């Protein structure tokens, strides 16, 4: 009996990790509302290496359709702007001193349908699939 309890606790722990991965993936989807998570995959070429944007700037959402990227080093503002543009997220930053503002366009019905389809067609995350298969081999 204790073996089954131990296995159940292990599955719960691994499932929580898989849920966190899923939240990160869904957090990066464009929904028409600004979300700081959409800039997580952006890599900036800074100081001779590629660095995540959140290690060079503070990302905030001052308004529902506006992202504000406050760059800590003034010399990196152009590199941050270039990285956001080249990330193919459809955002155009407007640099001002140490800040880049990224306005989200008004979402339209077609765009909302497209995002809905992308979520529906998303493959099950590998972490979630491996936990499910380990817990219930009959589902794999």
Key terms:
two-stranded antiparallel sheet; four-stranded antiparallel β-sheet; alpha+beta; 140 residues; 6 strands
Describe this structure in words.
By secondary structure, the protein is an alpha+beta fold. The chain is built from four helices and six strands, in the order αββββαββαα. The strands form two sheets. The protein has a four-stranded antiparallel beta sheet, covered by helices on one side. A two-stranded antiparallel sheet has the order 1-2. α1 runs antiparallel to α4. The longest helix has 26 residues. The chain is elongated and about 55 Å long.
Q: How many domain units?
A: 2
Uncertain runs with pLDDT below 50, 5 residues or more? none
Question: If you compute it from the alpha carbons, what radius of gyration comes out, rounded to the nearest whole angstrom?
Answer: 19 Å
CATH level-3 fold name of the largest domain? Gyrase A, domain 2
Spatial arrangement of strands, main beta sheet: 3-4-6-5
How many H/I helical runs? 4
Q: Please provide the ordered H/E string of secondary-structure elements.
A: HEEEEHEEHH
Question: In this structure, how is the largest beta sheet organized?
Answer: 4 strands, antiparallel
Helix content: 40-55%
